[in-house]
Design brief:
alpha/beta, 7-stranded mixed sheet, 12 helices, 5-stranded parallel sheet, single chain
Length: 444
Amino acid sequence: MAFPAAATPQNPAGHKPVRRRTSALRPAGAVAAGASVLLTLTGCLGPAGGARVEHAEASGDGTLRIGLILDNTGKQDFLNASQLAAAKLAVREINAAGGHKGKPVELLPESISSDTAGQARDLAAARADVVIGPTDSSRAPAAIDVLSNARIALISPANTASGLSTYASGGYYFRTAAADVAQAAVLVKLAREGSAKTLAIVHEEGGYGAGLAAAVGAAAKEDGLGPVTAAEFTPGQAHQAAAAVKAAAPDAVVLIARAGAQGAIAELHNAGMAGPKLILSDGAVNDYGSGLGSGALEGARGILPGVFPSAEFQGGLVSVDPGLKDMTFAAETYDAVNLAAIAAAAAEDDAGTSIVARLIAVSGGQPQSAGGAPPAGDAAACTSYQTCLDVLRAGKRPDYDGQSGPINFNSNGDVSSANYMVFSFGADNQATMSGSETASSGAG
């Protein structure tokens, strides 16, 4: 795919400003989310599948109700607007296509709060059948615990902590965002494309850095890169890690960081290990400009999750919210709402149990039991609620490919493949989109 030269993380299409998940745009708790979620998960691991692959008897009341958990406050509160606009756009289009069984789909009134469990309880009381959210991975367990107990489907458009794949949700939890570790193969591929034969991994302390570093190391070994040097650092204290990398003299350096990314880049640049040698994980990609020395990132590359947003999709979002300035997580939210409605249509029932039993099938995944089996007939790709309804009416199984790309949920409720945008940095330390990659997100 060719990308406009003017595309940047802030404005990839050259249309209205669109920011993806740069380090500065992560939800406030995301820096520590990996560690906190992994701690939360201790003793809470559950088997894959559950309600996702079990038989579900129709038990809905005939009205499909969708709720939102908007948990971004303070500096990250701009993330709420994009998710709300995307949900409203999807519901508007679903209802224009006839709604669920001839009745309008209801989007429940939203609230904004970091009390995720409280929001989940309120949505359960409002008789939600499916809930979209939360944004922050560290808050997901609170939502899962409440909603899975109430047999309400939960689909997050933004959770990326790897440990959530095995959190005990009873099968009621899905996410349209890939786990952090899915990017490991892409980071190694970029190193290989740069003719690297040896690799160093510099990673920030914490769950995100350590988990992704381990995944990159494993992917490098599988790809024949070696030796691999790994160095951990605390934000603001990357000098020793940079020195260790300089001593190893690798062909390429993968930086895995969020809060400490800028300082680590500066130290690597001083050690002669930046520029074309450097490959940035999603948490480290940003437009640094004068925040770094001139040319510090020239020739470096990095990745951000997601796909290039179409002008049509951006236009639809702006028609819902004319003041929208940021579209982070919008595609993933839009797809989550559509998938829930398509699953309800396939089940001919709006209950949460019926929705989760059909989500794998309508996403293009392969259910593992008769309970989650798809409708009779071959699978057929569809890209909207209307076209997926047409597939169902033709006696085939919908395979929804959305604004965020193919979904293909696995038995953990994770997407089976992950899409990434590749960015290249110029002498001004600004990033422009230069390509795209797709990677498997792991076995389900």
